[in-house]
């Protein structure tokens, strides 16, 4: 009980302190996620031992549940951030990025894990699948907020947001294919993957999410027409929708991550634009509140001994994944992505594919099911590398992109007020 009270007090205190400097942090090379991770390391067994995660319960189960809840809240926030017309106007480009793009990133990640860690091929494919999706929680500080709005064109921000939301759910089929091939005979594994993973887990989750989001939006509209709901309850309503979707996905034993995103995407298609804007800001605040604890918890459960056993191969894997998993894929697919107009934008989108909460969820889930600690050792090291690298470069690279685009627009002779207008004029 004392350990639980310590956890609650430390989480509340950390969020309180980070919130006081949030405006400065949004423009600094020390984002809240990185500071939260450092706090977790300090209060965990590695340093001051104020929190012993073993007392809280089974570590894989604890992290899986915490990540699942954080993802649910974060994914609905992503859906609210994307304009209503964006999926209809850009579905071809997004389909390329979340299908062909994911396949290529999975292949590259698998190859890197296999070469650097020397694990069996299907174990490498499993770890590679876990680190393939772009994380929506870690991507939010990059594409949301005043700094992002000033420097990153809207289409680029929307592209990163939509991809990070959609590919987390689709990552389920990439993760479960190697898992099934590791645990079942080949024919049985492929049959299970086609019928259960694709048809039920993805297909039913998508349909259930679309239906849930539509019904929730219609009920909200009905309540508003009858003047039955107050403005204070609107934010509560969207958070409750995320929780309902997460719980429903688990109850029907389907892909709850995809179900949440589908529900949020449909919800935003039905409610009005003004309502979406009001809820988006509130939802972003809720996202930040849930994001800090998961990174503090991550800091307390880092497998230092497991990292030491990986040695230099683990560090080389992190560097290779960050540099080779995503940037080459974005450059290869750039001719098919009309929202990425310039080399600067391609570099930005290629670099900022953070690996965080979704990887925590899938790694914890797979470690629990396989009993293989190397999954958590490798994935947690890559996550920390991503949190540090993408966190430290977030504000500087965002400012650099804004300056670069402004110079390009001045050179082209277009006099827009900001890079967003220039981007829209060019399109």
UniProtKB/TrEMBL annotation:
Its main location: membrane. One of its GO terms (biological process) is regulation of membrane potential. GO terms for cellular component: plasma membrane. Residues 404-427 are annotated as: Disordered. It is found in: Membrane. One of its GO terms (molecular function) is sodium:proton antiporter activity. The keyword Disulfide bond does not apply. The chain crosses the membrane at residues 6-26, 33-51, 66-83, 95-117, 123-148, 169-186, 198-220, 232-251, 257-273, 285-304, 310-333, 345-363, 375-397. Keywords: Membrane, Transmembrane, Transmembrane helix. It is a multi-pass membrane protein. Residues 17-399 form the Cation/H+ exchanger transmembrane domain. Residues 418-427 have a biased composition (Basic and acidic residues). PANTHER family: NA(+)/H(+) ANTIPORTER (PTHR31382), SODIUM ION_PROTON EXCHANGER (EUROFUNG) (PTHR31382:SF1). This is Sodium:proton antiporter. It comes from Microvirga makkahensis.
């Amino acid at each position: 009980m004392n350990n639980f009270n310590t956890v609650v007090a430390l989480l509340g205190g950390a969020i309180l302190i980070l919130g006081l400097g949030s405006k400065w942090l949004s423009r600094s090379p020390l984002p809240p996620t990185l500071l939260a991770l450092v706090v977790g390391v300090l209060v965990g067994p590695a340093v001051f031992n104020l929190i012993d995660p073993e007392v809280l319960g089974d570590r894989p189960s604890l992290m899986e549940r915490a990540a699942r809840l954080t993802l649910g809240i974060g994914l609905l926030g992503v859906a609210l951030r994307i304009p209503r017309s964006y999926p209809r106007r850009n579905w071809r480009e997004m389909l390329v990025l979340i299908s062909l793009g994911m396949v290529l990133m999975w292949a590259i990640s698998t190859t890197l894990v296999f070469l650097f860690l020397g694990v069996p091929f299907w174990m490498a494919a499993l770890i590679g699948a876990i680190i393939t999706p772009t994380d929506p929680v870690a991507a939010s500080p990059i594409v949301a907020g005043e700094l992002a709005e000033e420097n990153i064109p809207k289409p680029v921000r929307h592209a990163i947001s939509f991809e990070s939301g959609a590919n987390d759910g689709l990552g389920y089929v990439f993760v479960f294919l190697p898992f099934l091939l590791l645990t079942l005979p080949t024919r049985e594994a492929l049959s299970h993957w086609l019928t259960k993973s694709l048809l039920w887990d993805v297909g039913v989750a998508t349909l259930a999410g679309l239906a849930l989001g539509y019904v929730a939006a219609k009920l909200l509209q009905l309540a508003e027409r009858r003047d039955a709901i107050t403005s204070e309850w609107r934010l509560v309503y969207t958070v409750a929708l995320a929780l309902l979707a997460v719980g429903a996905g688990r109850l029907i034993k389907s892909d709850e991550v995809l179900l949440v995103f589908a529900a949020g995407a449909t919800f935003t298609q039905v409610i009005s634009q003004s309502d979406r804007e009001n809820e988006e800001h509130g939802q972003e605040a809720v996202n930040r509140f849930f994001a800090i604890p998961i990174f503090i918890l991550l800091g307390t459960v880092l497998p230092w001994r497991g990292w030491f056993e990986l040695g230099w191969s683990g560090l080389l894997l992190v560097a290779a994944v960050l540099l080779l998993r995503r940037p080459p894929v974005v450059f290869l697919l750039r001719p098919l992505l009309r929202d990425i107009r310039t080399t600067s934008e391609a570099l930005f989108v290629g670099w900022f594919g953070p690996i965080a909460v979704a990887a925590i969820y899938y790694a914890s889930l797979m470690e629990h099911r396989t009993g293989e600690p190397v999954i958590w050792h490798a994935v947690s090291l890559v996550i920390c590398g991503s949190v540090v690298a993408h966190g430290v470069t977030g504000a500087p690279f965002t400012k650099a992109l804004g300056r670069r685009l402004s110079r390009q627009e001045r050179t082209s002779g277009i006099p827009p007020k900001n890079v967003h207008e220039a981007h829209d004029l060019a399109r």
